[in-house]
Specification:
Length: 266
């Protein structure tokens, strides 16, 4: 179906997929399993404070639905001083922790670790890719020349329900660089987004943490929904300790906190 991806995965033969449950890693896990068979595709979800609880639950559900060979592993990036400091290289230390956790699993199976990085990801500020590559991870979707749009379309053709799943970056991406990332803060953000998902069940959603303020990013077509239920929104976030609750009229923008690093505006 996708000759270049078939070639890349067949050459690797035995892989460990870093399975976060997002559209890209889900596609890679499902496609590799159909191509190589479950005995040669081991899917691993890293569970930590930076993974939303709903995402961990969905990984489990997807593994059951698709018959994946799947396990979880606990990672402790939140114990790393460099990660907590939340400088521009935070993602490097997160992926380095992930690779340290996946490395022994892959070694025991004589397998190669693969990540669901796509061509579009290469243009964003993602130092984690460097950490993964430095420790031997391979990016088959990049080797196959696949963009995010192509992956979603291929997922749709395969009847994967993740084909239109909104992007779900780690919870630390809601915290401005320079603000320490703690387990308590990540839990707070997770609870805030879970509460808002009851009001905005579809589309992209972020609650950006900014001190006493919670800045909500959603798709513009959901503005009216939030406005109509603004009392519930404010009550939910004030209950979590936020003094100010704002709606960003620019809408959802992936990676917009990277502006602080001199990156281009999303």
């Amino acid at each position: 179906m996708l000759p270049l991806l078939d070639e890349s995965l067949s050459r690797l033969d035995n892989v460990v997929v870093a399975f976060s449950g997002g559209a890209d890693s889900a596609f890679l896990a499902a496609y590799a399993t159909r191509l190589l068979g479950a005995s040669r595709v081991h899917c691993v979800t890293a569970v930590s404070a930076s993974l939303a609880g709903s995402e961990a639950d969905d990984c489990r559900a997807l593994a059951d639905e698709w018959g994946l060979d799947w396990v979880t592993v606990v990672t402790n990036e939140t114990s790393r001083p460099e990660y907590i400091a939340n400088a521009g290289d935070r993602c490097f230390h997160c992926k380095d922790e992930l690779m340290d956790a996946l490395g022994p699993i892959a070694a025991a199976r004589s397998a190669t670790i693969v990540l669901g990085v796509n061509l579009d990801d290469l243009g964003d500020h993602r130092p984690g890719q460097q950490a993964a590559a430095a420790k031997g991870a391979v990016f088959p979707l990049v080797e196959a020349g696949l963009t995010k749009e192509q992956i979603r379309e291929a997922s749709r053709r395969m009847n994967l329900r993740t084909w239109d799943k909104p992007a779900a970056a780690c919870l630390a991406s809601r915290v401005p660089y320079g603000t320490p990332v703690t387990v308590g803060l990540l839990s707070r953000i997770d609870r805030a987004e879970a509460a808002l998902r009851c009001i905005v069940p579809e589309g992209n959603l972020r609650v950006r943490h900014d001190g006493e303020a919670a800045r909500i990013e959603i798709d513009p077509d959901q503005f009216a929904t939030v406005a109509a239920r603004h009392g519930e929104v404010v009550a939910a976030l004030e209950a979590l300790g936020y003094r100010y609750v704002t709606l960003d009229l620019a809408g959802f923008r992936s990676g917009n906190l990277n502006w602080a690093l001199g990156e281009n505006r999303p």
